[in-house]
Design a protein that fits this description.
- The complex is a heterodimer of chains A (212) and B (251).
- Chain A is α/β, with parallel strands linked by helices and 212 residues long.
- Chain A has a single domain, classed as Class I glutamine amidotransferase (GATase) domain (Rossmann fold, 3-Layer(aba) Sandwich), CATH 3.40.50.880.
- Chain A contains 6 helices and 14 strands.
- In chain A, the strands form 3 sheets. An 8-stranded mixed β-sheet of chain A has the order 2-1-3-4-14-13-12-9, with helices on both faces. Chain A has a 4-stranded mixed β-sheet with strand order 6-5-7-11, with helices on one face. Chain A has a two-stranded antiparallel ribbon with strand order 8-10.
- The two termini of chain A are 21 Å apart.
- Chain B has a single domain, classed as TIM Barrel (Alpha-Beta Barrel), CATH 3.20.20.
- Helices cover 38% and strands 24% of the residues of chain B.
- Chain B has 10 helices and 11 strands.
- Classes of the chains: A alpha/beta (212), B alpha/beta (251).
- The interface between A and B is medium-sized, with 37 and 29 residues.
């Protein structure tokens, strides 16, 4: 059983439907007690970093997430949910994140290295470049996934960078250490590649092993 | 970054209208079945345009959205009949990834701000119907399905919409729509240069070479077509292969 953390930020419907399609049971909950009965949790999220962290604190889900990770069970952050795993964000100010991964969330530059203008948000299908092997990346051949975001994780520890996409800068796309992992894109909207990634997460959960 | 190919489906009272000629279909009017076919062909996104005239039809659209979201793992946008924040909520909560606003946004631009504040800019697509007007030397915005001219120019409206929080512009050339002579390169290029968000070109697609033109010459981020895909004049896969051969980056 996967728990989808419901803290009022984001489209839980598409994540849950994706899990249904690949045949993985889930619960959607905001209750730490209920979520604690699961073998893995997904932290989704669409919206602003500041609001998301405020909601997590209000509901004390931030504390729950730390305890859950300490228990050794896998956590997957998706999109904004991945960004929240980092130390801090500069989105509309400067805000502290969950601090589970090293790095900070910064705005995507609107020019590439050659001075060409880039559209922000980074929206659409982009190719994954793999940096190291990991169970979560097993069987991923066609590496195109669907991104929608205006901020990205900078200063990510090389050891935790599993895959990236190029968009003017190197955009960390799949990150993780031990039982903590994150995807900047939307696996639930990334066709067969996305379904494989979610299946891999579920497999790791069933084995109750680390993602790396 | 890849260029996106987006088939567009017109839905009326929960059924796809306009002839769709796929031999493999059991039911050419079923939005879910058609969506699945386009997904299998490699469509990067889908747009559903609700052209229902009735309140019942609008309600049916929510069921369609739910069914499509349950079946498909690619992003999709719903336009038509979205006039208030409540409409956006209904469609997005049913599982759509984006909503597209046209006439309602022109009549009430604050709707863009409200939608972007509530759901984020990435959910808000502004659809603009554009027609060149020689008397003003630029393109004019039309509403009500292209029937009503407005006082707005396309470039200014696109800029304003983005400032208010639009995350994407779906730009239809009324001059080229249905012509099959190719997308409107000048229009698409002008809007693309004016705004910092992705632009979807629409209207005029007649063959794979037109997609190449709009991506390379007009720098469109995505291109939308309806009839050439529905009538199987070309397939999404064929267009993508053509683009790949021309070294355009596609999924």
């Amino acid at each position: 059983m996967i728990g989808i953390i419901d803290y009022g930020m984001g489209n839980l419907f598409s994540v849950s439907k994706a899990l249904e399609r690949i045949g993985i049971p889930y619960i959607i909950s905001e209750s730490p007690e209920e979520l604690n009965k699961t073998k893995g949790v997904i932290l989704p999220g669409v919206g602003a970093f500041k609001d998301a962290m405020a909601r997590l604190r209000e509901t004390q889900l931030d504390q729950f997430i730390h305890e859950y990770v300490d228990s050794g069970r896998p956590l997957l952050g998706i999109c904004l949910g991945m960004q929240l795993l980092f130390e801090e964000s500069e989105e509309n100010g400067r805000f502290e994140g969950l601090g589970l991964l090293k790095g900070r969330i910064v705005h995507i530059p609107d020019r590439d290295a050659n001075g060409e203008r880039l559209k922000v948000p980074h929206m659409g299908w982009n190719k994954l470049h793999f940096h190291q092997d990991a169970p979560v990346l097993e069987g991923i051949e066609d590496g195109y996934v669907y991104f929608v975001h205006s901020y990205y994780a900078d200063g990510v520890d090389k050891k935790t960078l599993l895959a990236s996409a190029d968009y003017g800068v190197q955009v960390p796309a799949v990150v993780g250490r031990d039982n903590v992992s994150g995807m900047q894109f939307h696996p639930e909207k990334s066709s067969t590649t996305g379904m494989q990634l979610l299946t891999n997460f579920a497999k790791a959960m069933e084995r109750s092993e680390d993602m790396l | 970054m890849t260029k996106r190919i987006i088939p567009c489906l017109d839905v009326k009272e929960g059924r796809v209208v306009k002839g769709i000629q796929f031999v493999e279909l059991r039911d050419a009017g079923d939005p879910v079945e058609l969506a699945r076919v386009y997904d299998e062909q490699g469509a990067d996104e889908l747009v559903f345009l609700d052209i229902s005239a009735s309140v019942e039809g609008r309600k049916t659209m929510v069921d369609v959205v739910q069914a499509v979201a349950s079946e498909l793992a690619i992003p999709f946008t719903v336009g038509g009949g979205i006039n208030a924040l409540e409409d956006m909520k209904r469609i997005l909560r049913a599982g759509a990834d984006k909503v597209s606003l046209n006439t309602a946004a022109v009549n009430n631009p604050d709707l863009i701000n409200e939608g972007a504040a509530f759901f984020g800019s990435q959910c808000i697509v502004i659809a603009i119907d554009a027609k060149y007007d020689e008397s003003i030397g630029t393109w004019r915005v039309y509403t009500h399905g292209g029937r009503t001219p407005t006082d707005r120019t396309v470039i200014d409206w696109a800029k304003e919409a983005v400032e208010r929080g639009a995350g994407e512009i779906l730009l239809t050339s009324m001059d080229e729509d249905g012509s099959k002579q190719g997308f409107d390169i000048a229009l698409t290029k002008a809007v693309g240069e004016a705004v910092p968000v992705p632009v979807i070109a629409s209207g005029g697609a007649g063959g794979a070479e037109h997609f190449l033109d709009v991506f390379t010459e007009a720098k469109a981020d995505a291109a939308l077509a309806a009839s050439i895909f529905h009538y199987k004049e070309t397939g999404v896969g064929e267009v993508k292969q053509f683009l790949r051969n021309a070294e355009v980056n596609v999924r």
